Amino acid sequence: MRIINSHTHILTEDDKTGFSGDIPELIKDMEKAGIEKSIIIAGGKDQIPLNELIKKIGNDKRFSIVFTMDLSKNLEKQEKEIDELFKVGKIRGVKILLGYEYIIPDNKKLFGIYKLCEKYDFPVIFHTGDTLAGVVDKPKLIYSHPINIDSLAVEFPNLKIIIAHLGNPWIIDAAAVIYKNKNVYGDLSGFFFDFNDETYINFVRNKINEFIAYASGNKLLFGTDFPLADGEKYVKFVKSLNLSNEVFERIFYKNAIELFKL
Q1: Rounded distance, CA 166 to CA 96, Å?
Q2: pLDDT (tens digit, 9 = 90+) per residue, 93-119?
């Protein structure tokens, strides 16, 4: 089965997470897990700068890029940059770090970004759920709850939206938003740092099964949050879910192909 990793990162040397991973390490992780393509999220705070990543991957067709907004900087300037990047095919989506950025998704100052994503038919990805408290300075969970996505989805029904991390631990809340809104999807990234805690693994599996019972798995995307977790073990975990081959195909590659136009 084809596999696309829809959520990865390349970290800078001064990153505070304690993880490390550059393009060679990502390639090794992909080969070991049988992953054919990866979406790399760049720019914003504490991530590899976009221009540096573009140089690193060159014309390697295994990689596509999502640009992260930095809402502390000039938004009008970033909108112009995003417009040009979409136009020349350098990025395939935009990410907003809810919880790290103190903002709710339907804030009108973000509407220009959403209109660009609509214009070029690429998704906006929102960090939701848990935050790296103690690693990233002063995150606030009130901004990262997935229920905040619903109002935006209603106001922009043609905007492709991805709820990253399924709002963990508010997974059933994310299920309600995804089930209700045709334009909203969720990715399975960021649930694990390692796979040694069986109690937590079972907790996550049960929560995802609850999500699937409510909203089905048809609008989920596979992702690992590389380098936070091992790709091969992540694939094995997702394959342990009780799903049909048709749903697995949507999770592992079909949804990513459609949303990111790969």
Answers
A1: 15
A2: 999 999 999 999 999 999 999 999 999
Enumerate the domain spans of the chain. Answer: 4-260
Provide the token pair at 2.
Answer: 């084809």
Residue 164, classed as helix, strand or coil, is strand
Instruction: Provide the CB-side half-sphere exposure for 105 (13 A, CA).
Output: 28
CA dihedral sign, ordered 11, 12, 15, 18: positive
Render 92-158 in DSSP notation, one character per residue.
Answer: S-EEE-BTTB---TT-GGGHHHHHHHHHHT--EEEE-S---BTTBSS--GGGT-GGGHHHHHHH-TT
* CA 222/CA 112 separation, integer angstroms: 28
How far is residue 53's CA from residue 23's CA, in Å, rounded to a whole number? 9
Rounded average pLDDT over 212-238: 96
Backbone φ/ψ region at 160: left (φ over 0), alpha (ψ -120 to 50), beta: beta
Answer for the pair 49, 81: CB distance below 8 angstroms, yes or no.
no
Pick the CATH number of 4-260 from 3.30.390.10, 3.20.20.140, 3.30.2000.10, 3.90.245.10: 3.20.20.140
Backbone angles phi, psi at 101, to 5 degrees: -100, 130
